[in-house]
Amino acid sequence: MEWLQQLINGISLGSIYALIALGYTMVYGIIKLINFAHGDVFMIGAFIGFFAIARWGLGFFPALILAMVVCAILGVLIERIAYKRLRNATRIAALITAIGVSLLIEYTTIFFRGAQPEAYPDVIPNKSFHFLGAQISMQSIMILSVSIVLMIILQFIVHKTKIGKAMRAVSYDEEAARLMGINVDNTISITFAIGSALAGAAGVIFGIYYTKIDPLMGIIPGVKAFVAAVLGGIGIIPGAVAGGMVLGVVETVVSALGFSLWRDAAAFVILILILIFRPSGIFGKNTREKV
Amino acid sequence: MLKVNSIDVFYGNIQALKGVSLEVNEGEIVTLIGANGAGKSTLLKTLSGLLKPKKGTIEYLGQSIAGKPAQSIVKAGISHVPEGRRVFANMTVEDNLDLGAYLRSDRAEIAKDKERVFNIFPILLERRKQLSGTLSGGEQQMLAMGRAIMAKPKLLLLDEPSMGLAPIMVKTIFNTIEEIRKEGTTILLVEQNAHMALSIADRAYVIETGKVVLSGTAKELQETEQVKAAYLGGL
Asked: What are the structural domain ranges in chain A?
């Protein structure tokens, strides 16, 4: 049952990508910006979780919630300080700013605590279960259940609440949303808050799963989550989840086949293929740009 | 009710409105007619807070609303049905109506107003669970108007409600506009279909290249040679 084992590993990894990809896709959906600082918010989440557990002795759930809250605030600050004034600027200006913010967060973190990695403490008992011959660790179960619960909450917020409807309205037609009396600035900030909170949660989960964290850890998962978002169709929420899962499983399978050195390349091969053959992503509709 | 006093509005460097003044009294249907690009939509967008006037004043119920953000204008009781309907096509008819009531929290009253919208436009009740992008043009126009009514406006701004609709649908829409007025909502109607607009309006303004060039009762304007020649197809 080697395959089942790999599938479970792949889905665990995929759910981390999915949580990060959700933030990318929500922000893109509402202001058409690829927020390249998103991976660094994820990193900050991992460190907040680390400090909460290792230094302040908090349990897993309080640490998770604290990381989510801090990241939500950080996300709103980034939007208000760096992106808000660029809302009517060219897209490339906003994109370059996003890269700048990303570097700023990375090297500010290094400035204050150094670049050395940190080992995540064990907060989840190291038990595992046997299921159809596969070994499922308590951690995998925790990661999956936390991710699924967060995604269900997100789905509920986006489709059933007033603020979620406002988010969808702004992302579809900002001016019409204004005419409904929707405060567009606040709606955009809330989108950043939710997306960043999910990245923060992903950071804590990542730390627990992979045990090693460092200030530059957000770069690769961030880029991969971006690939996942594009794969699913950028701007489409279920697409981010599907893209993350597909990417996680593909990477795990590539490793399992003995090509673990090619693991990271797999993500980029997928990106290239999707951009060539289906640029709007799995869930995206093919829209031709009108000239 | 609404007093616009010589406003100037710019798009970047281009001046779209040059000293426009007009007035809407409570209970009236006032129409604004003019060709494409004359500045009609610009005026409505300025009234609803999407654009800010560079000069001049806008007074609504005795308060200045020039340059206020759109949400406070909606809250004050002005709803704008934009040109091209602009319904949220990715959401259901009912979600669209709920968004119309975004700033309200009086649930019971909102439910009543939704009933009212369904009474005015029974087709929306039938299609309430449908994605609004799947509606026909006329149905989308009804939805856009219904959505605006959900904000409980005292003054309704309608931008080209007849655009792109079949003649029979245009009739239905105009009948509804009269009905909405009867129920106590004042209406400022922007139209290219001057014939229809003048037939239901009390008063009218003619706007050309950003300036009001004529005004008077709808009857008077219907008789004016200038209007007949330019907007009523010489009939």
From this structure: 14-219
